[in-house]
């Protein structure tokens, strides 16, 4: 047990430690403490006022240990994981209670009648925890939103957001503060900024985007070089530290993108109006200006606050058409930027970046959010153009801040880091790749990166491409925010941060503030930087989980129309309880369980081969194999697709075994 984990320790009192409470479906609690190998068991009567996921202080029982399981009692809640919940209202005479719809046991909320906000008995609502004082037997809450049952899709998406811990709406005080902000460009502010309004500037975004937080400018210089600016919405000009707006943005930390909506980090007044770099409007920006030769050599960099004016709003499709045809509005600028982006991209990969690519699946929805079809978006040159200039800006900012010291110590700063692959995850993948003839060098991180790139190049277009790409991505560590800069392995950068999306990511707002302090030589080190980085990393993970849940819901909803139909698929994952299959046509993933395969054989998992193997027949279901499946169930509530495996027409080992009578159908 490390010293910093002990909150208090007296000779007459058991130690108190801080950790995260995980409550199982059975109702037993486990507190996970960093630095302690075994979780601390907490019985239901000892939860105090804590909910599942809360960060809590737990007092370890004196008689714990010495061969016994370590047990404890929660003494306080250090931080709430979630304060809004979905559930149902129960009203009996003048007393109302809210029961959360969760598999994790938790106390009902007492709701004062005046805080029902129009909810009636039995209605599905979103309720917010207001207070739970030590003297109160029950937590007190209030109804925030009444969920209308006629809009099933809307309710499902809201439930996903609530489950992930994201508020559905902004509090009135937050909206009021946003509405007070002025869009007027003042003379006083102009004096502090470089004026780039007369230089060709444009945005490149998805066709349905409303918050344009980055723009690119370009002009020729007299010395034959090009001046290219990456201009980012200056959110930190409007959102001041410790303001109501700032606290709300930090609580969310990120926007969440579901199939039919965006749950924004900032109110629409800021994200879509004040800060959005809309065409033909003057906007405050934070910029990185590069002087670049036609060979892609960067000769000079400038960082600072600017004012810009977007001349044109491009979609990715617009830019792709210009790249492919060589013609269109501002085509010379677009073609030049595309050439430079390709030079930067080649240089990145030459220096060790890993060339992973992934398909993005989007749903075509009707006005009610019902999926009509599925679109697979490719990462084309137009996307890569924007990506390369954003990567360049992010890297440049991180390099600049990394050189600055306070009392010979690094500036506390939210770096975006990506660790090297874990050997234990990498070894089985390397052994699996070898079965297909791909050899990995593992003597250092650079050799692993080179081996990955060689594999990705050689596997392109081959049957095993999908499985090796997916497994390769799974061996990678997760990128996180931290002040401890270890570089970004996947990108091959020694220094990296997020600077280019402050409308939708809180770390970018922090970067802007610290950057201005560095430029002003007026640094105020943030002692809570690591705590803030952890919050941002945790919220990013929860947003990704919500986005996956939203996509899964739409997959199930879409596949309901195909019950009983058969599709070609690829095995996308294996587990002891079955294998996952992604349909080739729709990219919708479902499961074939070992229970459904039991009439053919008994199967066991061979982890090293990423396969389920029949004990009698030797039949293998290996990740990446092509199979045919039938859609047998589509459960929207569980967001779950069930498939049955369909045998091929030709005789298989299973057919032969059945013919010999070696396999009996289980009753």
Describe the structure.
With 667 residues, the protein is α+β, with helices and mostly antiparallel strands. The chain folds into 4 domains: 3-79, OB fold (Dihydrolipoamide Acetyltransferase, E2P); 84-147, OB fold (Dihydrolipoamide Acetyltransferase, E2P) (Beta Barrel), CATH 2.40.50; 175-398 and 509-514, no CATH class; 563-659, Beta Barrel (OB fold (Dihydrolipoamide Acetyltransferase, E2P)). It is 29% helix and 30% strand. It is built from 16 helices and 34 strands. The strands form 9 sheets. A 7-stranded mixed sheet has the order 12-19-18-15-14-13-20. Strands 1, 2, 3, 4, 5 and 6 form a 6-stranded antiparallel sheet that branches. A 5-stranded antiparallel sheet has the order 9-8-7-10-11. Helix 8 (331-350) crosses helix 9. Mean pLDDT is 90; it is low at 1-11 and 650-667.
